[in-house]
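Students often ask why inverse folding is considered easier than folding. One informal answer: many sequences map to the same fold, so there is more than one right answer. In these notes we will look at a single instance of the problem. The structure comes first.
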C-alpha cells in the first residue's frame, strides 16, 4: 500500500511520522473554499475531501489521506494570524473563551472513501497582555489558527481541553486515522 499525505503542512507530516509507516507527502492541487461561504462543518469537509480527491486523481492506486481544520469562537471563524501583532490581538480576544477546532479527515483508496470531522474544544484561561506578548515572542504562532501551539508552550495558555483525540488539535487526528489504516495493512 502506497500511503500519501495530501498536504504541505510540516505539522501534519510530523504527526503522521508518529505512526512509523512509510508515506509520501504530496501538495494537493486544490483551491480551498474560503471561510464564510459555507457553514464551518461543511466547509471543512469540502476542503478535506477536495484535497484528498485532487491527489487521488494523480495517484489512483494509492491510499490518500488529507485533513483540514477550522477554529471557531462563537460565530467568529479564526484564521491564521500571519504576523505577531495579529497573533497578540487574536489571543487577547480569546482570553477566557472557548474555541472549537473542527478537524476534517479523509481517506481515499481504490476501494473506499471515508471522511469525518473530529471536534476538539480548547478553553483559554484569562490572559494578561504581558503573557500574550511574551508567548507570541517565544513561540511565534503566526501560522496557527487560534494563535497558539498546544504541542508547545501554548498549552500554558489553556485552562482545559475537551476532546477524544489531542492530535486533532494539531491538525491530523491520529487515533481515527490509525483505526482506518489498520485493516489496510493486512
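Output (designed amino acids):
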Amino acid at each position: 500500500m502506497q500511503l500519501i499525505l495530501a498536504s504541505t503542512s510540516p505539522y501534519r507530516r510530523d504527526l503522521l511520522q508518529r505512526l512509523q509507516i512509510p508515506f509520501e507527502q504530496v501538495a494537493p492541487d486544490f483551491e480551498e473554499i474560503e471561510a464564510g461561504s459555507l457553514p464551518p462543518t461543511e466547509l471543512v469537509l469540502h476542503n478535506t475531501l477536495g484535497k484528498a480527491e485532487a491527489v487521488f486523481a494523480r495517484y489512483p492506486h494509492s491510499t490518500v489521506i488529507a485533513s483540514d481544520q477550522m477554529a471557531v469562537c462563537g460565530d467568529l471563524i479564526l484564521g491564521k494570524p500571519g504576523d505577531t501583532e495579529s497573533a497578540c490581538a487574536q489571543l487577547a480576544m480569546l482570553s477566557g473563551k472557548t474555541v472549537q477546532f473542527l478537524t476534517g479527515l479523509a481517506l481515499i483508496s481504490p476501494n473506499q472513501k471515508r471522511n469525518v470531522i473530529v471536534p476538539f474544544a480548547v478553553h483559554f484561561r484569562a490572559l494578561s497582555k504581558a503573557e500574550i506578548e511574551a508567548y507570541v515572542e517565544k513561540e511565534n504562532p503566526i501560522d496557527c489558527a487560534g494563535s497558539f501551539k498546544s504541542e508547545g508552550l501554548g498549552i500554558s495558555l489553556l485552562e482545559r481541553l475537551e476532546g477524544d483525540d489531542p492530535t486533532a488539535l494539531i491538525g491530523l487526528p491520529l487515533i481515527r486515522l490509525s483505526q482506518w489504516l489498520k485493516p489496510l495493512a493486512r
